[in-house]
């Protein structure tokens, strides 16, 4: 199974919204990849910006898989990959 970049962004929006007790539409996410730092995302909520690392992205994906697909995946079953866009591969 794999998730598209849009689904990964949705996963992050839902995760951040749940933590901040806000609507997912109030969260802006820009996916990033850097040769030195790997995968990350730039998050904007209510005018505040911060970055989350690959571990936080994968945590959001595991929660999304459980919530949206009923799939209980462990973090070591999820890998991020960069093709034309960032995608997540899930070994289920």
Automatic annotation (TrEMBL):
User: Could you tell me the superkingdom of the organism this chain comes from?
Assistant: Bacteria
User: Which Pfam families does this chain map to?
Assistant: DUF2653
Q: Which InterPro entries match?
A: Uncharacterised_YxcD
Designated name of the protein: DUF2653 family protein
Record organism: Saccharibacillus endophyticus
